[in-house]
Design goal:
14 helices; 7 strands; homodimer; globular; Rossmann fold; 2 domains
Chain lengths: 355, 355
């Protein structure tokens, strides 16, 4: 696409055109040419949406609960964008409003935009694609953005970190709790929900969760608000312990998504958490940590791309490896030689900056 | 160190001075200044040693078996260097000949050099440090190099990939087999050894292993000879299937390391495998794949270092993230801005090369 066409796309998205939004997210997913400029152009228009991440094991009832939450926000007059990161999703682009049958209630409602993103095949990393899609929804003016993802590993943890508030769903009596501890999900939850609260064992699961969160609190709660890259979180740890009264105590709620019971309480807890973040200045901390993590991720990806391109210019890594295997050169000399102009360029700029 | 001192160190190492060798490995481990030039200088003197990797679960008897193997080679008049990668090792540098009590038989024997390397704290990655240490032993003229590591994950898999021949130790009847399958150890074994073959269940374990290897064979045996980076192995897959007769069938041997039973057979199998690699041209394939993996790993590390240094020049990622959080800029603009001179430098070189 030309720069003019890109500018027109951005304008239409900012005007709330759902097709421009769908097209933008497709470009983000496919990293198609010029997508970076599009995201850059949108960036200044972001920051107004309230972003909620919803995660939990498969079968915990995430989709149904998200549907109910969307309905709640709509009844309240708010517009909602949903990014559903689904490992089994057949949608890899082009899927727009109503791309999931279960969101049938939202079909025809311009105040809702639902988009499935496949967890597979993201060259630039799933978390980057998700973060950019959230920005597109934010810039398009949605009041709420919901990111739904299966809580199954680091990838998903990275994904929900794009949210201001992370809601963790737990299924009663499934031994889910221990598994979640392993995956580090307990650490990133701001609000916990025991869904299917009408099932046997729900009260027990609620009690277990509260006990674990209590234990976490007893360890200094250093991980609360842990967002963004690990290094960044570590740097922030001291600040966060400065004022113990500012700590957020993650509530454990009960819902029955199929009937809508407890959904209003969940929406209330999400708003409480958002208000807490704003009042304590942590909303800004999270934004900064997120930005730092995004910058690092992008730089890593971009330099990896540069290096791969440079290797291809030299006939591919195999050709270079052949010369190393023949002892004509060695890996360090290859790396130094490849990166010398890079180092020189950075040094030159440094000299210019100093001058 | 000065370049002159480095050259002197390299000369002494090539002359077989064990202190120069110990010092070189310490510099590799600590990535101390100038170590890259030292490794580069050694590279042209490598390729003569026969490198054996020995891996297996804790308690499988690796250390005892390696001791016996070293004794066997010494009795045969060969010199042996040992790199023991030990996650619990307190040695992080300076440990030389006889640094492990159990190698008592080798103390005072100049034909043996033993070095423990800690699995922790390697800035540049354990596999890089191990590969460089192996090169140092190779350049120092040892006939055999043994790399011993706990077979516990990707780190260790990368480590044993520095070897020409990978020996996998299994303990009888421990359910070890299934665990190994998970860790991908079965795929990288060239020779399997059921150690403690005098224990109950040894015959059963041997049979299980043979069955699993048979199954692997039935799937086309595409993974045999799988060394180096995964991408590289994929590229080589077609070549490897071209001639089924060239396939190596990993033998399953039985040893009792504590008595030395079976150690001669093990040494024989290692040599058979080495001969096989040479005759089929696969020794060269492995060397090339290894070189490709080393180049990629180094480039990744080096570019990450460059990026971090550049971020520090700009006041650290936090300062940049602050500006992004304020919407003064965005992650893509930051990344583009940081890497623009790099891209320009690479383009300029390309133009020069074309001219």
């Amino acid at each position: 696409m030309t720069a003019d066409a890109d500018r027109a796309l951005v304008e239409r998205l900012l005007d709330g055109d759902p097709r421009a939004l769908a097209r933008t997210i497709s470009r983000v997913e496919n990293r198609s040419e010029g997508y970076r400029d599009v995201v850059s152009a949108l960036y200044g228009h972001t920051g107004d949406a309230s972003v909620v991440g919803v995660t939990g094991s498969p079968g915990a009832g995430k989709s149904t609960l998200v549907d109910e939450l969307v309905g709640y926000y709509r009844d309240d007059g708010e517009t909602v964008g949903v990014i559903a990161v689904d490992p089994s999703s057949p949608y890899t682009g082009g899927a727009v409003l109503g791309d999931r049958v279960r969101m049938g209630s939202a079909v025809g409602d311009e105040g809702v935009f639902v988009r499935s993103m496949s967890a597979r095949g993201h060259l630039g990393g799933l978390s980057t694609a998700t973060a950019d899609a959230v920005k597109a929804l934010d810039a398009a003016g949605f009041d709420r953005v919901v990111v739904e993802t299966v809580g199954a590993g680091q990838n998903e943890v990275d994904v929900v970190r794009t949210a201001d508030t992370v809601v963790v769903l737990v299924q009663p009596g499934s031994g889910d709790d221990v598994q979640m501890l392993k995956a580090g999900i307990l650490e990133i939850g701001d609000v916990f929900v025991v869904n299917k609260a009408d099932l046997d064992g729900a009260a027990r699961t609620v009690a277990d969760l509260r006990e674990m969160l209590e234990l976490r609190g007893g360890e200094g709660r250093t991980r609360v608000g842990h967002h963004g890259a690990v290094g960044v979180a570590d740097e922030r740890r001291d600040d966060e312990n400065e004022d113990e009264d500012d700590e957020w105590s993650p509530p454990v709620l009960e819902t029955v998504a199929t009937t809508g019971d407890g959904v209003a309480d969940l929406a209330g807890a999400v708003d409480d958490h958002r208000d807490h973040l704003r009042q304590t200045g942590r909303m800004r901390d999270r934004a900064r940590s997120r930005a730092a993590a995004e910058i690092r991720t992008l730089l890593r990806q971009d330099t990896a791309d540069l290096v791969e391109a440079e290797l291809r210019r030299r006939g591919g890594v195999e050709a270079v490896a052949e010369r190393v295997a023949d002892r004509e050169t060695d890996p360090y000399t290859v790396a130094d030689d490849l990166l010398a102009p890079v180092q020189a360029a950075l040094d030159r700029r440094q000299a210019d900056d100093d001058a």
